[in-house]
Design a protein that fits this description.
The protein is α+β, with helices and mostly antiparallel strands. It contains 16 helices and 27 strands. Helix 2 crosses helix 4. It is globular and about 95 Å long. The chain starts with 15 loop residues before the first strand and ends in an 8-residue tail after the last strand.
Length: 689
């Protein structure tokens, strides 16, 4: 892009950092950090120094965020660059025009951003390297804690406590199946009121909570004519969704593509770095992917509107562009220097470059491309219909919905619940075909999925775009949380013990409440104030340390927390005869001998899922069991391994596809084919969260 007069080299991330072997923060000397060359980068450093010595000018073009600014600052120190010079280059998409324009207009290194990054790094180091030894001493060696991860763990543990304390309440769903007297239309109505009192609470008929009440309402419906009292229809406008920012991209990639946040960011990074496109050369496909802004450049908006005008009917283009800045509802400052995540070139359609992308790159680029074009399209319009009827003291209701104009949902399908209701006039009488009551129970709150955890952290102002992807993975690696079959998080016994200890000593302690979302959000706000030159970084770090060190001293006097004893499984060890117990290792629970270390017998836990092995189930009786790979990833295999080598990453559903005959798999309540596009919902599936 820049031609033969430029040499471009990468520092491959941070070139200097704090050493891993010690605290490396001089608390008594204004929290002076001790930076060292990152291990393994001596040759790279020497190469960069040599190139810098033979160059007339050095430009530093690391990522345009706090971490990138700190990398540029460290490089300036190593390469002897005067930080008062205009040596800093920032671009937000790796396209020829963006890069050349940035190089023409270099700036100075933003030392306020560097201070904010350094404050964040020092705070995290103080928390991690002071809390971890405390956890080793009071609970178990090898544990660790973090400023953001401990908040996430607390959220997951508190949700689990809610679930454990939840008591289900019964309620009854009454359905009246009716048809008009011409027998041309059928309706399915449910009681809304009885004896002038509402039956609905939280969108459920919770006030129909006894068999007697349900029977009374059923009798009222069966013994009275059902007369239409109201039929109305109104149009509902559905505004286009905002373009992606980091958190929403991770959430949608998790929901729609089954990608973990880490995977999403890794693939997004490769799309940002780009690839060779015929006729264009090396081109970045998306703008910078670590952003919490919804701003879109005028150039990008105009290009998007021109694309819509050229490729869709005129009604799909609104009279004015759509703007989304007001939609942000975060408790931290928005990094508005970045744009929202969008295609760098709207005319590079996903299908046109599909053969240049990996399947995962294609899926993610397609998601970003469609979401961006949709954000500048006209509103979708649906018709919402409401039918009410009366049967004695009971008021019955049915709602329907139908899409009238798809608008932006032509690219980003709108999930409408309900079918179109055929219009019927007030005063008409319906014939009752069937009326029945079904007993149900209220369900506990759902555990966090990766998408919901990120959303909750963002809403509470905890973490930043650069941290969301690693939070859950770190907690899983530490053995604090695991995922169930529905890919939702639940805490392990160890996770609950660590959370209880941290909450006891580091909650509601002013500046040391590291497990409180409110405290961590305030800390993120103060880091933003450092970046804006409204606070001094030493002041922020010093205030935190004064409180935190006092709390550490208090917690250091606590008694050691006993770990739960391993749970016997009711079997004897085949090697030594002692009890076998459940233990937890790096990849979850396993069965081991209680006589360890004298006896080293172990075996994995294989939980069956109630599905025969598709390969040998009918002949040899093999069953599908859940297993863990060496990297801790869940997969499914035959219980007869190694005699049967059947394996699958997705959970087998025990059915074959009605369209192509291939094996069907299950994800939550969705059953899908691994070969074709067949998909269906299992209405009887009940989540175990």
């Amino acid at each position: 892009m820049l031609g033969k007069n430029y040499i471009v080299r990468s520092s491959k991330g941070h070139i200097r950092d704090l050493p891993k072997s010690r605290l490396a923060i001089d608390i008594e000397n204004n929290f002076e950090p001790e930076y060292i060359l990152v291990k393994g980068k001596a040759a790279l450093k020497n190469e960069l120094v040599k190139l810098a010595g033979s160059s007339s000018k050095i430009l530093l073009a690391s990522d345009p965020d706090r971490e990138g600014e700190a990398i540029a600052w460290h490089l300036a120190g190593i390469l002897g660059v005067d930080i008062k010079q205009k040596c800093r280059v920032r671009f937000y998409e790796i396209t020829s025009n963006a890069v050349k324009e940035a190089v023409k207009n270099p700036d100075v290194i933003d030392l306020n951003k560097v201070d904010a990054q350094q404050a964040r790094r020092i705070l995290d180091r103080l928390v991690g390297y002071k809390l971890s030894p405390l956890l080793w001493k009071k609970i178990r060696y090898g544990l660790s804690a973090g400023r953001v991860q401990s908040v996430a763990l607390n959220l997951i543990c508190n949700k689990e406590r809610e679930i454990q304390e939840f008591k289900p309440d019964p309620y009854y769903v009454i359905t009246a199946e009716c048809e008009n007297q011409n027998k041309t239309c059928k309706y399915e109505l449910r009681p809304e009121k009885f004896d002038n009192k509402s039956l609905i609470k939280n969108n459920l008929p919770l006030l129909i909570n006894t068999p007697k009440k349900a029977e009374e309402i059923l009798n009222e419906i069966k013994s009275n004519e059902i007369k239409i009292t109201e039929f109305k229809s109104r149009n509902v406008q559905h505004s286009a969704l905002a373009p992606f920012r980091t958190s929403t991209l991770q959430q949608e990639a998790s929901r729609r593509l089954g990608m973990s946040p880490q995977k999403t960011m890794s693939i997004a990074q490769s799309l940002y770095e780009g690839l060779n496109i015929p006729g264009k050369g090396h081109t970045g496909l998306i703008t910078y992917m670590r952003t919490d802004s919804l701003r879109i450049s005028d150039v990008a908006i105009n290009a998007c509107r021109e694309f819509i005008e050229s490729n869709f009917a005129k009604e799909y283009l609104p009279s004015k562009p759509n703007f989304y800045a007001k939609e942000l509802n975060t408790k931290t400052k928005v990094q508005d220097a970045h744009e929202a995540i969008r295609p760098a070139d709207i005319n590079l359609k996903p299908d046109d470059i599909k053969d240049k992308l990996t399947p995962e790159q294609y899926k993610l680029y397609d998601l970003i491309w469609r979401r961006f074009i949709a954000c500048q399209m006209s509103e979708a319009v649906s018709a919402k219909t409401t039918l009410r009827a009366q049967a004695g003291k009971a008021i019955l209701k049915q709602e329907g919905s139908i899409l009238i104009f798809d608008g932006w949902s032509i690219l980003w399908p709108l999930d409408l619940k309900g079918d179109e209701l055929i219009k019927i006039q007030p005063g008409e009488i319906l014939d009752l075909l069937k009326a029945e009551s079904e007993k149900k129970f209220t369900r506990p709150p759902s555990r966090f999925s990766e998408a919901n955890l990120i959303k909750t952290l963002e809403e509470n102002g905890v973490g930043r775009p650069s941290t969301y992807a690693t939070i859950a993975g770190t907690l899983e690696t530490r053995g604090y949380i695991e995922k169930n079959e529905e890919k939702r998080f639940y805490p392990t016994k160890l996770g609950m013990i660590v959370d209880e200890f941290l909450a006891k000593y580091f909650s509601n302690k002013n500046l040391s409440s590291i497990v409180d979302a409110g405290f961590t959000a305030q800390m993120e706000k103060e880091l933003d104030e450092i970046e804006d030159a409204h606070r001094n970084w030493l002041e922020v770090v010093g205030e935190f340390w004064d409180e935190f060190s006092d709390t550490l001293s208090e917690a250091d006097g606590a008694e050691k927390v006993p770990l739960p004893a391993p749970e016997p499984i009711g079997e004897k060890c085949p090697d030594c005869g002692k009890d076998l117990v459940l233990k937890r290792g790096r990849f979850g629970e396993f069965i081991a001998c209680s006589g360890y270390p004298e006896c080293k017998y172990t075996r994995p836990i294989f939980s069956t899922i109630g599905v025969k092995c598709p390969k040998c189930g009918d002949t040899e009786g093999g069953e599908i069991v859940k297993r863990k790979s060496k990297k801790g990833r869940t997969f499914y295999g035959c219980s007869r391994y190694p005699d049967c080598d059947y394996v699958a990453w997705n959970r087998p559903a025990g059915e074959t596809c009605p369209e192509c005959g291939s094996e069907l798999y299950r994800r939550g309540s969705t059953i899908f084919c691994g070969k074709c596009k067949f998909k269906k919902q299992d209405e009887n599936s009940i989540s175990d969260d």
